[in-house]
Amino acid sequence: MATVALWLAMGGDVVSYEFSENQAGQAGALQFSGSGRNCTFSNNSASSSVGGVTGGTTLVENCIFWNNTDQTGASESAQLSPSSNANVSNSIIRGLSLFAGNGNISLNPQFVDPLGPDGIAGTLDDDLRLMPNSPAIASGDNSLLPSDVLDIDRDGDTTETTPLDLDDTARIKGGTVDMGAYEAS
Ligand SMILES: [Ca+2]
Ligand SMILES: [Ca+2]
Ligand SMILES: [Ca+2]
C-alpha cells in the first residue's frame, strides 16, 4: 500500500493515489489546489476542521472520501471542505449534501479491510481496495481520466489515458473505470 502519512500542501494533478491516516489541526490529508482524480481519502482526521481536503478551487473526479473525521464527526464537511469551491463529479462522499449531483453518491465504498489486521482504522495495514460488491466499481467516468503525461507505464506514450492504478494493474478494467485509487474489476 502506498500511503501518504504526512500532511501535504500541494498543487497540480494527482491521479490514482491513496491518502489515509493523516492527522492535523486543520486539513487532515491535503491542502490542495489543482485536481484529484481516482484518489481515495479515508481515515484522515483533523482536530478542528476538515479531515479530508481543503484548499482553493479544486477539481475532484472519480474519488472516494470515506470516514475522514473532524470536530463534526464524519460529516460531508469533514470529507471535503465546502469552502474549497471544488468541482466534484463521479465520486463517493460520506454524508453527501452540498456536493450532490454530477454522479456523486454517498454509499459505503466497501473497502476490503478498512481496519486491517490490527483492527484499528487509519494505520498502515488498512486495505482500501474494493470488495466485489463495492458501489465504486464501474461508477467512474473514463473520460475524466487525464492523459499519461508522466508516462507511468514507460511505454513512450504520453497521450494515452492513465494506464495504471495504484497496484500497477490496468486502470480501466471491465470497460468502465472504478472510483478510487484501486481498480477492482
Ligand atoms: Ca489498521
Ligand atoms: Ca504511457
Ligand atoms: Ca472497472
Task: Provide structural commentary.
This protein is mostly beta strands. The protein has one domain (8-144). 2% of the residues lie in helices and 25% in strands. The protein is built from one helix and 13 strands; from the N terminus they run E-E-E-E-E-E-E-E-E-H-E-E-E-E. It has one helix at residues 76-79, and strands spanning 8-15, 18-20, 23-24, 30-37, 40-42, 45-46, 53-54, 58-61, 64-66, 87-89, 92-93, 111-113, 127-130. It is globular and about 45 Å long. It binds calcium ion (3 copies). One calcium ion binds at residues 148, 151, 153, 155, 157-158, 160, 163.
What compounds sit in this structure? calcium ion
Enumerate how many helices there are, as a single number: 1
Radius of gyration: 15 Å
State the total count of DSSP E strands: 13
Q: What number of domains?
A: 1
Return residue spans where pLDDT drops below 50 for at least 5 consecutive residues. Answer: 1-10
What's the main sheet like?
5 strands, parallel
Distance between the termini: 18 Å
- The coarse silhouette is globular
